[in-house]
Amino acid sequence: MEHGQPEQLVQSFLMGSKQTRSGQRRLLLLSKIATLGSLSSAARACGMSYKGAWQAIEAMNLAAGEELVIAQKGGSGGGGMVLTPAGEQLVAAYHLFNEQMQHWMRELEKLSPGVLSQLEIMRKIAMRTSARNLFHGTVKDIKKGPVNSEVVLSVGQGLDVVAQITPESLERLGLEIGADAYALIKASWVILSEDTAGRFKVSARNQFCGHVSAIEKGAVNSDVTLELGDGQRVSAIVTNTSLEEMGLEVGGRCCALVKSSHVLLAVAD
What we know:
By secondary structure, the protein is of the alpha+beta class. It has 3 domains: about 5-120, Arc Repressor Mutant, subunit A, CATH 1.10.10; about 125-185, CATH 2.40.50.100; about 185-260, CATH 2.40.50.100. Helices cover about 35% and strands about 30% of the residues. Helix 2 packs across helix 3 (about 40-45), helix 2 packs across helix 5 and helix 3 (about 40-45) crosses helix 4. Residues about 1-5 have low confidence and may be disordered.
């Protein structure tokens, strides 16, 4: 198996350290299993469901290529979970690395005050995706349902992006109130309409209104970019026929409509 350079691994860990920490929650789960001896107790301590904890264990075993946790039979409690030697080595390395990283970050801030605030920009630059529209923000609200969960991401001054995902995805991403996340929207999923200005309602949960800042016309379709304010933009791919029928031109106003089910959420792992 090909391994990345040590400095790349450290950079990846550091760059994602301010995110939802889904990867670090898994390592914390291992640590709690070691101290509590029970998967259910460790899951509760980490704010995870029992099913989510099992999925995390399976994912870690798969990534490590060997078992990190095994069931222990017997005892007054009917058995529990213990770490394998490989699991113990991983947890020890995690604690050591985390301790040294915190020390290094404090020293770095002393050398250049404010340098850590640049991590946010570094994360955005490092994020690669095929989706034209990428919004970064903080989870503002979560409404859990039996089939789907609704996540509201605050991405700017007064601008929210609403996404609809499954409960399994919610837990797998480790999303919670206050967590950092990215909303991705393909330009082909964006529908343009005239500026509603509150005159009528639409079923799309996401309605972004602004000024047309650019139009790139192709043979069949056109790429339309809207300026939403506060540095936010959204792009849409529409047919040239729709472009002409709507009378869209640079400087004009219109709205971008996006169904919540067409918003993909991502976290830096």
